[in-house]
Amino acid sequence: MSLGGYTTALWASVAGPDDVGGLDFAVAMIPAVSFARLMWRHGEHTPARARAAKAGISEDLLADAFAVHMPTTRPARLPRERLFVIAGRGDRITPPEHAEALAAHWGVDVRWFDGGHLAQIGRGDPIREVRRALGQLALPGRVPRMPAVATPGTPPR
Questions:
Q1: Which of 24, 110, 121, 147 could form a Cys-Cys staple with 103, CB 3.0–4.6 A?
Q2: Spatial separation of the C-alpha atoms in residues 50 and 40, rounded to whole Å
Q3: In Å, how far are 74, 109, 127 from 124, measured between CA atoms?
Q4: Vertex 89, ends 83 and 93: CA angle to 5°?
Q5: pLDDT per residue over 32-46, tens digit each?
Q6: Contact 78, 12 (CB under 8 A)
Q7: Could you give the C-alpha distances from 131 to 2, 26, 94, 97, 128, in angstroms and in order?
Q8: Taking each helix axis from N to C terminus, what angle separates 96-106 and 35-42, rounded to the nearest 10 degrees?
Q9: Which residues, 6+ apart, have CB-to-CB distance to 5 below 8 Å?
Q10: CA 147 to chain centre
């Protein structure tokens, strides 16, 4: 989540499932996708931002500088059904617009919970939803569950 969500999103754009160190799926939870936007937003009323603006630094300039490691600069190297974004509607640290941008870039839906970055109220539902979706995939090394079979004289599990 958070910086881990950013790292997951970035890794999904550089390492496919067949690469050494590649991914079989990616779940970006509360992902930051634009450090330029985060820095500019969180520094809105600070002396540092005022000095930066006075020196000619803008959000666009920062975005250009950070583009090389922005998860939305390159396409994901995984199929859509293996990409997931989970985010909090009330997040004030990594605002929902970051999750929305990544989901739009990947062509997937955001799985929302009501909480935020610190108080992740309701995150269990989207996590369970992602786990169910992952369970449907034929992932390498995954041992499928055998259906429960009742033997005569014992109740089914």
A1: 110
A2: 11
A3: 30, 17, 5
A4: 90
A5: 999 889 888 888 899
A6: yes
A7: 19, 12, 23, 24, 5
A8: 160
A9: 28, 29, 30, 31, 32, 94
A10: 32
